[in-house]
């Protein structure tokens, strides 16, 4: 019983000591907190770090907002465009206008690629000219042709961007050249006749593809460097029909059918006129031959003489 009381007393004393120690530590910490102040060096370092990080964050936000990486500018690729056009001009005299048009185009560095002319008098004459003109001079030449040759009746223009096609052909051409070089190196290391024949066959096929790509590249370069202009010159009284004014639907079909009928009639009459002189000349000969044939048929047959009977021996 005495030991139990001593144990309770000892437990109570230890609890009191622990409570006192905790209270003292809390008061000590609460009293020491106001006394501690930030170190000036640490505060300056933190301020400098925040100043450095803020512009970096601002540049990052600007870069993300723009959608591109700062300091990288997209390369500007020259556009490859094919220009084509057609023009109709009414001139007082077609033949001098043709010569003047050729001179204008030649002065600009172009040339004549095709010509069709119909010289049926100065008033009804017409000519169709196809010119190749440098792209840089295309607009200037077009303006001069429409203003100096006569009255411009119509003008149609077309522009086709072939930049992607040109880039694709160039890329395929480089790949074909590299592949051909690799095959030639492989041919040097071939050991057997079979390997040599196989590699040579493949080289021939790749060379054909390479020549085709080179031809495409050359044609595209020509088309983009020289614009094509088709010039039609007509006389003062030549009728020029505008395709936009032609009626559509039933009236258009009726007009086309009537024109076809008129064209067929003209062709038939032309053929009859060409054959008529031959018929007139040959008709008397045909009549003479028919009369001779009928006369021979009307003649009676010649009488046959009786043959003497042969007596038996």
Automatic annotation (TrEMBL):
First and last residue of the signal peptide: 1-32
Instruction: Write one Pfam family the protein is assigned to.
Output: DUF4349
Q: Which keywords annotate this record?
A: Coiled coil, Membrane, Signal, Transmembrane, Transmembrane helix
- Segments for region (Disordered): 30-72
Instruction: Give the source's domain of life in one word.
Output: Bacteria
Q: Does the keyword Oxidoreductase apply?
A: no
Q: Which residues form the DUF4349 domain?
A: 79-291
Residues folding into a coiled coil are 159-223
Membrane-spanning residues: 269-293
PROSITE patterns cross-referenced by the UniProt entry = PROKAR_LIPOPROTEIN
- Know the name of this protein? DUF4349 domain-containing protein
